[in-house]
Design a protein that fits this description.
Elements (H helix, E strand, L loop, with lengths): L8 H15 L5 H9 L2 H15 L15 H21 L1 H7 L3 H8 L1 H6 L7 H14 L2 H13 L4 E4 L15 E5 L4 E5 L7 E2 L10 E10 L2 E11 L13 E5 L12 E5 L2 E4 L9 E2 L5 E2 L9 H31 L18 H36 L6 H29 L11 H13 L4 H20 L27 H28 L4 H7 L1 H26 L4 H21 L1 H6 L5 H18 L3 H7 L4 H4 L10 H10 L10 H11 L4
Parallel strand pairs: 1-5, 2-5
Antiparallel strand pairs: 2-3, 3-9, 4-8, 5-6, 7-8, 10-11
Bound molecules: ligand FFI and flavin-adenine dinucleotide (FAD).
Ligand FFI binds next to α6, α8, α10, α12 and α14.
Pfam families: ACOX, ACOX_C_alpha1, Acyl-CoA_ox_N
Protein name: Acyl-coenzyme A oxidase
Subcellular location: Peroxisome
């Protein structure tokens, strides 16, 4: 890690401030790093991989991407993404470190991979969706045909589902794939302008192939959206296939501008029958349709990606809160006590309130994403054996955690930007780019409100089952109708008691929403209208339920961690802060359900202040324990050595506008104006 510090009084002061923070550390940092990495051996492995990639000059950028044209930015990131694969394919040491096949995907999606390609990796969709779609939706023969070529990069794919007219409502897709038994081909067609595929990452110029979701028609009947493998570009020339399909890029976005998100239209484009991914449903040569065991199996790729997004949200928030916390230790502003030296802004309780809960959130997402990932593997494992029983639970869990982690992370990154004052608005802080990347996850892979409503659907269904006396799945087993009972006594505000209070609050909210829904139906509304009229409340149930889930996973994760008492101490304080922060921020849910009393709330608010003070000395040591390399942070404000101001000035000097004292634009535009009256 670069720890070179320019010797000036200001630099010395900044370094002294951040060094003093490190001296306050109350726990062995390597233990926290290992908890997050999944073991000390994994930490060593990650560092070695980072070293191998970061020491490679090919990954250096000649200039900041913001100064490049749209096309040059794309080319620069594509260059690095391809070099990453080339390096992986040709280096046995790297392959051993990251693992042969899955490794390249993990590498691309890791903190390192995301940092090396700065504003969106043009190959992301290939690894995150195209390959998983073939794995999850293709037969063994289809996997044999496509996977090898896709892993090595001989073909590059994307996942083309969303259209101009429909993203959320998958059943509303307009692209058709009509089976023609005479030629044993499917004919792909975009019947209207709104049927144009729109948004898929890498579709613009990078992908040679796509998994296209289209309405399957055979023997005159529509069977809903199904996945098809479609070649888009010529294998040798990369030219679009003339006449039948037309792809391009959709133009600049808020962020992720080097992902070449694209559009695609089909004009009676023919593909072989065997290009329908047929693991779950098949079309036979004569056009007979064989149904899947569950018609939502075609949505399986999205379930995987929703889980993957939770890990990405975790990493993005980690980066942002590291930047803002280190900066807050170096930045001095105003006076706490008149006449006394300006304090580090981290001394202000309000600043601690911005940052410390976000540090806790990193751990909250970490423990719950691990848990959902385990559930994903268990459920998909039992699905291989034909058992689909837990699919609805997995769907609800992955929707809930994707929505919660992406909104927590995007909101958290924005809080970090604000916590850095004006300087957080500078591109060189890296906070703007982290924000625009993170906020996209609120929309893609299922817009969050829509996902909350899917969770609510599961909750209400489960609650109704519970009312009939049926046993529920583990993640919702607490949803039994409960009589309003007396609140927990102030002496019982242990962590477990607070988690229990969450359970009671959610049960109460769900019971209320279910009753309101029923009332609407009883008053003569059709179910769907009654549902819509309660949907604000329903989304709220889903949010509080998912928060409860993260609290529970955080607490059990800390209790189970194999660490020293000092480390368990700091993690327990963080977990406590997470619980108290979310309860005090949502008091109404707990008060009206009787889960907690106004006196409890007062006690918890007092405790919140004490927790901020107790965690304040460990703020910088905790973000240091995230162990993020300076190159991965890529921030003038967050660098390890704290030498913020010199770095900012150095970066500003590099602006192309500063390469000439008087820019050409002055002579062209400003001078004629300024001299007009002379
Ligand atoms: C160790 C860690 C390792 C980790 C690995 C490492 C990997 C590397 C990591 C990489 C880092 C990442 C970085 C990212 C980079 C950028 C990527 C950008 C990608 C962006 C791609 C996209 O953006 S791509 C398009 C996504 N576009 C949607 O996301 C549409 C949403 N829209 C719907 O998804 C449906 O439209 C919607 C609403 C369900 C209604 O669907 P619908 O109308 O058909 O259904 P209904 O509402 O009628 O019914 C509902 C009934 O369906 C059941 N159900 C519904 N879905 C189900 C399902 N999936 N599975 C099972 N069951 C399901 C449900 O449980 C109900 O069941 P029930 O009836 O029993 O209650
Ligand atoms: C950066 C980025 C990358 C993407 N990459 C891909 C990709 O690789 N492949 C791909 O296929 N797609 C991709 N997408 C598309 C993405 O999946 C969709 O934009 C997303 O699913 C939301 O759908 P929509 O745009 O139709 O939003 P809309 O559904 O039109 O949402 C607009 C508003 O309507 C509300 N709304 C809609 N339906 C309901 C409902 N039933 N109940 C309540 N409220 C509702 C939403 O909450 C939202 O507030 C990408 C999008 C982005 C931004």
């Amino acid at each position: 890690m670069a720890r070179v510090v320019e010797a000036s009084a200001v630099a010395r002061r900044c370094v002294a401030d951040i060094t003093a923070e490190r001296a306050k550390c109350s726990f062995p940092q390597h233990e926290v790093t290992a908890v997050l990495d999944g073991g000390e051996d994994k930490t060593q492995q990650r560092r070695k991989i980072e070293e191998l990639f970061l020491s490679d000059p090919e990954f250096l950028d000649a200039v900041r991407p913001e100064y490049l044209s749209h096309e040059d930015r794309y080319a620069n990131e594509l260059r690095k993404a391809c070099h990453m694969i080339g390096k992986f394919n040709n280096d046995e040491e790297i392959q051993q470190l990251v693992g042969q096949m899955e490794g390249i995907r993990t590498l691309m999606g890791s903190g390192l991979g995301v940092a090396l390609t700065k504003d969106g990796n043009p190959l992301a969709l290939h690894f995150v969706m195209f390959l998983p779609a073939i794995m999850g939706q293709g037969t063994v023969e289809q996997q044999g045909e496509w996977m090898g070529r896709a892993w090595t990069g001989e073909i590059i794919g994307t996942y083309a589902q969303t259209e101009l007219g429909h993203g959320t409502f998958l059943r509303g897709l307009e692209t058709t794939a009509t089976y023609d038994p005479a030629s044993q081909e499917f004919v792909l067609h975009s019947p209207t302008i709104t049927a144009t595929k729109w948004w898929p990452g890498g579709l613009g110029k990078t992908a040679s192939h796509a998994v296209v979701m289209a309405q399957l028609y055979t023997q005159g009947q529509c069977h809903g959206p199904h996945p098809f493998i479609v070649q888009l570009r010529h294998q040798d020339t990369h030219c679009s296939l003339p006449g039948e399909s037309h792809a391009g890029e959709i133009g600049p976005r808020l962020g992720m501008n080097t992902n070449d998100n694209g559009f695609l239209r089909f004009t009676h484009h023919r593909i072989p029958r065997t290009h329908l991914l047929m693991k779950h449903s098949q079309v036979l040569e004569d056009g007979t349709y064989i149904k899947p065991h569950n018609n939502k199996l075609a949505y399986g790729t999205m379930v995987f990606v929703r889980v993957a997004i939770c890990f990405d949200a975790y990493r993005q928030l980690q980066r942002a809160v590291t930047i803002a916390t280190r900066y807050s230790a170096v930045r001095r502003q105003s006076e706490l006590v008149p006449g006394q030296p300006e304090p580090q802004i981290l001394e202000y309780q309000t600043q601690q309130y911005k940052l410390l809960p976000l540090i806790a959130t990193v751990f909250g997402i970490h423990f719950s994403a691990r848990s959902v990932w385990d559930t994903y593997n268990e459920v998909t494992g039992s699905m291989q054996e034909g058992n689909l029983d837990r699919l609805p639970e997995l769907h609800a869990l992955s929707c809930g955690l994707k929505a919660l982690s992406s909104s927590d992370a995007a909101g958290g990154v924005e809080t970090c930007r604000l916590a850095c004052g004006g300087h957080g608005y500078l591109a060189s802080s890296n906070l703007p780019r982290i924000y625009t990347t993170t906020t996209a996850a609120i929309t893609y892979e299922g817009e969050n409100t829509v996902l909350w409503l899917q969770v609510a659907r599961y909750l209400i269904k489960s609650y109704r089952e519970a009312c009939k006396g049926h046993t529920l799945r583990q993640s919702v087993s607490y949803l039994t109708p409960q009589p309003a009972s007396s609140s927990a006594s102030p002496s019982n505000l242990s962590n477990h008691a607070l988690v229990k209070a969450f359970r009671r609050a959610v049960s109460h909210l769900v019971a209320e929403a279910a009753a309101r829904l029923q009332k609407g139906c009883d008053a003569g509304m059709i179910f769907e209208h009654a549902w819509n009229s309660c949907s604000v409340q329903l989304a709220r149930c889903a949010q509080v339920h998912t928060r409860y889930f993260t609290c529970e996973k955080f607490l059990s994760g800390v209790e189970r961690a194999e660490v020293s008492e000092a480390t368990r101490g700091v993690l327990t304080r963080l977990c406590r802060l997470y619980l108290v922060f979310h309860i005090t921020n949502n008091q109404g849910d707990f008060l009206r359900s009787g889960a907690l009393s106004p006196q409890d709330m007062s006690a918890l608010e007092g405790e919140l202040a004490a927790l901020l003070a107790a965690l304040r000395p460990d703020a910088v040591p905790l973000v240091d324990a995230f162990d993020i390399h300076d190159r991965i942070l890529d921030s003038t404000l967050g660098c390890w050595d704290g030498n913020v101001y010199h770095r900012m000035v150095e970066e500003a000097e590099k602006s192309p506008l500063n390469q000439k004292d008087v820019p050409d634009a002055y002579h062209k535009y400003l001078r004629p104006l300024m001299k007009a009256n002379l």
